[in-house]
Design brief:
alpha+beta
């Protein structure tokens, strides 16, 4: 394996032999080219990463919406925005959904932190914007940017 590979868009990716991946840390988002098999072509992964990077605004918008739709009920049902032990809590307001987080608010709070480009899918991690107590959101997408799965 080469210790480094170059991309016209990213610059240098350095090989991490422990993780069998090429890593690029020079941006706000950490980018990984994950080799799942030794025969994976790192140049194909670079081209996929460059396409995602060029589409990053579109990808991120689609990804956030998909994650929010998938996890909104889990958020509102199991991570409420109120303290159940608050003696002054207005339970009527709880019952009418006044404390529920909307999909739009959910989308606005999460932020992309990590992208791992694999041969068959894209794996991402998002900061949760304190929707889930600081846990990261893990999500996978196909190359048409359709959500495969999202979870904490």
């Amino acid at each position: 394996m080469d210790k480094i590979v170059k991309s016209d868009v990213f610059g240098v990716f350095k090989f991490n032999s422990d993780y069998m991946a090429y890593e690029h840390n020079g941006r706000k988002i950490k980018w990984i080219l994950k080799l799942e098999k030794e025969r994976d072509d790192v140049n194909k992964l670079i081209r996929k990463a460059e396409k995602i990077f060029k589409d990053l605004g579109k990808f991120d918008k689609i990804a956030k919406r998909s994650i929010a739709v998938k996890l909104i009920d889990f958020k509102n049902d199991f991570w409420p925005e109120y303290d159940e032990n608050d003696e002054e809590l207005d339970w009527d307001a709880v019952d009418t959904g006044e404390y529920e987080v909307t999909i739009e608010k959910f989308e606005g709070l999460i932020s992309l932190y990590f992208i791992e480009v694999r041969s068959n899918f894209i794996y991402c991690e998002y900061y949760d914007g304190d929707l889930f107590g600081g846990h990261r959101i893990h999500a996978s997408f196909d190359y048409s940017y359709n959500l495969i799965n999202a979870e904490l």
